[in-house]
Amino acid sequence: MSTRQWIGPTRAVVFFAVIASLPVFGLAHWAMNMLVFTLMFAVMSSAWNLLGGFAGYPSLGHVAFFGIGAYAEVLWFQHHAIVSGYEPFWILPLIGIGVAVVGLPVAALSMRTRADVFAIVTITLLFVVQTLAFNLRGLTGGAQGASIATAPFPAATYEQPFYYVLLLLLALAMGLTWAGMRSKVGLSLVAVRADEDKAAGIGVRVQTVKLLAFCVSVGLTGMVGAIWAYYESFIYPQFAVDPLITVAIVLMTFLGGRATLWGPVLGAFILELAQQYLAYSLGGSEFYLIAYALVFLVVMLVMPRGIVPSIQDRLRQRRRRRVVDAT
Amino acid sequence: MSTDNRLWRIGLIAAAVALAAGCASGNSQAGGAPSGPLVIGASVSLTGDFSDSGKAVKNGYELWANTVNAHGGILGRQVKLNIVDDASSPTQVVTNYQNLINKDHVDLTFGPFSTLLTIPASQVAKRYGYAFLAPAGGGPAVFQQNLHNFFFVQPAPTVQSGDVFVNYLLSLPPDQRPQTAAYAELDDPFAAPLAEDIRQKLEAAGVRTVYKQVYPSETMDLSPVMGAIVALHPDLIVGGTQNEDAYSQVKDLVQLKYNPKFMFQSNGANSPLEFPDKVGTTNTEGIFAPADWYPGSKASGSADFTAAYIKAYGGSAQTVDDSSAEAYAVGQLIEAVAAKAGKIDNNTIISTLHSGTWPTILGNLSWGANGAPTGQFNLVQWQSSKLLPVYPSAIAQAKPEAPKPNWGG
Amino acid sequence: MHALVQGVILGVLTAGVYALMASGQTLIFGIMRVVNMAQGAMVILGAYLSYQLFTSWGVDPFLALPITTLALFVLGVGVQWLFLRPLHAGDRSQLSVLVTFAVALLVEGFMSVTWTTTDRGINTSYANASWTVFGYQITLVRLWAFLLSLFALALLYLVLNRTRFGRAVRASVQNPESARLLGVESEWVSAIGYGLGTATAAAAGSVYGMLYSFNPNSHYDLISRLLSIVLLGGLGSIGGAVIGALVISVSSSVVAAAVSPIWSQMTFFIVLLLVLVIRPRGLFGASMRGAI
């Protein structure tokens, strides 16, 4: 029985060790580049999972906080210099906390609604932030966009710092999820997802737990936004706050399995790598958006629980059958 | 126990495969031996928001490649284009140029369609020492990057495309110039800066600004803005526009029954087919716009380009998309560098293009250190439902018409 | 002052079209508890259909209405049958938002492929005609659009209040379980309800195409406004949708005239924020257990 307890952490260590060692093998730049974007989505999906998967509040506006993180990073460095190139990473914790704090009143307000209405409210939030990004021209540069100095990393290892920072963030996100799943907070979230009123009735600290999930979730997302801004070096409102990113995150989490630890990561790896590669090799065809929408629909309708839970179920059934056969 | 382990075994195998694939490509040989085909990579928006112009750019590149290959290629090498789609997305454009440069090892790179995409893309090209010639995307931020490898293939930075109009106005005797001006500007990387540039120059010359308003890009309804302008009766209306809002501005003015003495629009009005279709053929008369290429241009290679375009894509000189012309000019420059230097590679392009003037179908082009072209656009005007160049006189095919005749309705 | 009044006039005229679109959306929510994220895309699709009929056969958009509304009605029923009905009741409210969003993307992709991303507009011969009444300018097309919207809303009202189907719909909205016990075929009601919602989108779309340029991407702007209107008016209430559209449309138009166009866009969202803070169920929304 005790060996069982070590499987989870061992798995995690092996995964991270493999991913962390990839650059050492001289992985080509284009592959590193794809992995950087994939890791971004893996972090964001894991973060979304806290709110949408565990707490049962499907936020469709997460990318608003991605955008806020991105602009925060860019604006900070319009007044501070980038010398070693690592400063944008040092202020990440600051940005994460900042975005989480900004998220607090938003959470308090929007979580007065539930489920589908919550989805509407968060989508509207997305458009509000996008409009603000366009209209607060003095601050964000509006449609002219805003720039941050390009990272002074050597061309040969340019992607590596981003890669490792994102890997650390992923470890953080997954660590928080794992710890959450095993703690009272996790149980409370499950209760909230199942039936919030009853949970409140039996004394679960519903409000605290909801706010916690929301703020941690958006804080992580904001940090990814900041890294993205630094990687692109120039951001525009319609790309920093892009509804398609929200769709992607949600799809990845659903595909992999909501409310599981590895589901979002699996979904991110599958979808982002596939999407970047397919867009590059098959792009020209205008059926891109149609194909994307169809994948989304198929996943929603056929496998709404996602890959990880579906596989776990099937394997559990087989194990049960073996036990029955054995007796 | 076995359930989850199986998943993990699969996962590790997948990672190992990815690793192997990544390493293998990292070591693969370059595809640009000096005697093989000249492979040119470009990421263009074939889907998504910029797709119409993106496709026009692709057409331009392909037209040029076919033309030059029919004449023996460049320095004996056939040109092979590797065009990929970035779905109008900045993340995809970065991935695309990474792939083109580091995976497919193209010899040269051509640019994508918009400023939004040109900036991240040009950074990738710079990192690996590739020259970057962009047919579009000339917003100020692009030049602020101060990239030595970057060349914007148009007569002038987009923000200064209105300078030719200012020059025209100042060439008129003082009593014929407009006294007052109103500015309706779209908030976007070119339109507003362009209009602001015009405004500053005109104010310095004594033209009083009676109204200025920047409107967001999703503005559905421009009638409040145009209504406010009309109430002030300006002599000149300057529209810093893209396409949609240019049409709205004109339609609103027609509905408000106001005809200014001069009207200029930075974009939209220079589209030979779309503009009359959208605002009504009787409403185009007298409107000014900037243009780099225009039907009937006498610039170097233009007649051949027009003939080849019509042969490949049909239509007439009036339906040629100027994004295609800009893309074609990019190719012309490569040909010219090869002819002058006797060899063609990124360093040669970068060092050669920074001096001298280079004839293209867009006129004679030359660049400053940061890739900003140092020339001037052409001023075109709608006359009798045709778009004609009217200024400067060297290229004019008609006299500029002023004041503007009334709307047809 | 003149500009303000002109702004109010513009706002009222524009409100008609938005009210029509929003009523379809709120109807769908009322019947099925589904937030139709595809409503904006359906409007644009209606605009494209209208555009195609106009450019290929010269059919005036107003005359083409029966065709476009019927076409989109059928499409709506199809979408409900294919994509919404299979959702398990438990997951439905969460997943419906995502599923309809995916449908919106699907429609957008289809429109990009069929009509490319060039901006389109329906330019009838009377497109620029306008009347001047007491010094205020009224564009003819806008006026017709407004009258059409009123007509369509009146029709909708008749359908809901004077037909058997309408009674079934209202029963399902008020109490789905009891309605089913009384023999109301809820699946058919849902399908037809969704179809009606998209049909109103088609009607609004034809008119929309005459007022504004559009391209496949335009549905994002629309859906964000529609959501604000529907939340303000109260989910499920058609009267609320109409009032909501009026309030938002007039205030954003007045802000555009009096302050600047930049802030008029924010009006939608500021109104929404006020709604959420003061009265989350909107002006006329029923107090729904489990949703608000």
Provide an overview of this structure.
The complex is a heterotrimer of chains A (327), B (409) and C (292). With 327 residues, chain A is mainly alpha-helical. Chain A is built from 16 helices and 2 strands. Chain A has one domain. A two-stranded antiparallel ribbon of chain A has the order 1-2. In chain A, helix 8 packs antiparallel against helix 11 and helix 9 packs across helix 11. The two termini of chain A are 21 Å apart. In chain A, 57% of the residues are buried. Chain C has 292 residues and is an all-alpha fold. Chain C has a domain of 201 residues. Helix content of chain C is 76%, strand content 3%. Chain C is built from 11 helices and 2 strands; from the N terminus they run ααααββααααααα. Chain C has a two-stranded antiparallel sheet with strand order 1-2. Chain C is globular, with a radius of gyration of 19 Å. Classes of the chains: A mainly alpha (327), B alpha/beta (409), C mainly alpha (292). Chains A and B meet through helix 1, helix 2, helix 6, helix 14 and helix 16 of A and helix 1, strand 2, helix 3, helix 4 and helix 5 of B.
Q: Level of helix content of chain C?
A: over 70%
Number of strands of chain A: 2
Shape of chain A: globular
Number of domains of chain A: 1
> Which structural class matches the secondary elements of chain A?
mainly alpha
| Strand residue content of chain A | under 5%
Task: Please report the number of helical segments of chain A.
Answer: 16
Round the Cα radius of gyration of chain A to an integer and report it. Answer: 20 Å
> How many strands, which pairing sense, and closed or not: the largest β-sheet of chain C?
2 strands, antiparallel
Order of helices and strands of chain C: HHHHEEHHHHHHH
Which characteristics define this entry?
heterotrimer; A: 327 residues; two-stranded antiparallel sheet; 1% strand; globular; B: 409 residues; alpha/beta; Rossmann fold; 2 domains
Write the layout of secondary structure elements.
The complex is a heterotrimer of chains A (about 325), B (about 400) and C (about 290).
Chain A: H1 2-21, H2 29-54, H3 62-79, H4 87-90, H5 92-110, H6 115-135, H7 137-140, E1 146-147, H8 159-182, H9 184-194, H10 196-201, H11 206-232, E2 234-235, H12 237-240, H13 243-256, H14 263-282, H15 288-302, H16 307-326
Antiparallel strand pairs in A: 1-2
Helix pairs in contact in A: 2-8, 2-11, 2-13, 2-14, 3-5, 3-6, 3-11, 5-11, 8-9, 8-11, 9-11, 13-14
Chain B: H1 2-27, E1 38-44, H2 51-70, E2 79-85, H3 90-103, E3 108-110, H4 115-127, E4 132-134, H5 140-144, E5 150-152, H6 163-171, E6 180-186, H7 191-204, E7 208-215, H8 223-231, E8 236-240, H9 243-256, E9 262-265, H10 274-279, E10 288-291, H11 302-313, H12 322-341, H13 346-353, E11 358-360, E12 363-365, E13 378-383, E14 386-391
Parallel strand pairs in B: 1-2, 1-3, 3-4, 4-5, 6-7, 6-8, 8-9
Antiparallel strand pairs in B: 10-13, 11-12, 13-14
Helix pairs in contact in B: 2-11, 2-12, 3-4, 8-9, 12-13
Chain C: H1 2-32, H2 39-57, H3 61-84, H4 89-115, E1 130-133, E2 136-139, H5 140-162, H6 164-174, H7 176-181, H8 186-211, H9 219-233, H10 238-258, H11 261-278
Antiparallel strand pairs in C: 1-2
Helix pairs in contact in C: 1-5, 1-8, 1-9, 1-10, 2-3, 2-4, 2-8, 2-9, 3-8, 5-6, 5-8, 6-8, 9-10, 9-11, 10-11
